[in-house]
């Protein structure tokens, strides 16, 4: 059986590589996190909370300062276990802050 460019008769020889960037080695978190946060501010301001964007930005900064003062208190939990601290990456910190 042949379909497209893949010969399913020999599917045991087909190799697929999947790259998952859990540790951020393929992204530039520090450069991209600000844009991600700005998108979140827009969505929160216009669609969810319906409050001024500047208030969200202030609250975000205050919350992030509180989190960074005690990062051991704010962890990313998976099935009740801490998988990483909030300050282990820019994207993680942004997500925890929001």
- Strands ordered across the widest β-sheet: 1-2
When the domains are counted, the total is 1
Q: Counting H and I runs of at least 4 residues, what is the number of helices?
A: 3
Helix content: 40-55%
Distance between the termini: 50 Å
What's a concise summary of this model?
With 98 residues, this protein is α+β, with helices and mostly antiparallel strands. It has helices at residues 29-48, 53-69, 90-97; strands spanning 2-3, 6-7, 75-78, 81-85.
Mind sketching the topology for me?
Elements: E1 2-3, E2 6-7, H1 29-48, H2 53-69, E3 75-78, E4 81-85, H3 90-97
Antiparallel strand pairs: 1-2, 3-4
Helix pairs in contact: 2-3
Descriptive overview:
There is one protein chain. The protein is an alpha+beta fold and 98 residues long. The chain has one domain (29-97). The chain contains three helices and four strands, in the order ββααββα. The protein has a two-stranded antiparallel sheet. Strands 3-4 form a two-stranded antiparallel ribbon. The radius of gyration is 20 Å and the shape is extended.
């Amino acid at each position: 059986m042949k379909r497209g460019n893949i010969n399913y008769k020999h599917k045991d020889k087909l190799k697929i590589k999947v790259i998952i960037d859990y540790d951020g080695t393929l992204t530039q978190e520090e450069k991209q996190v600000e844009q991600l946060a700005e998108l979140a501010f827009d969505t929160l301001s216009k669609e969810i909370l319906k409050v001024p964007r500047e208030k969200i930005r202030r609250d975000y900064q205050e919350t992030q300062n509180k989190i960074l003062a005690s990062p051991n208190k704010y962890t990313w939990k998976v099935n009740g276990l801490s998988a990483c601290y909030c300050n282990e990456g820019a994207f993680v910190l942004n997500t925890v802050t929001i």
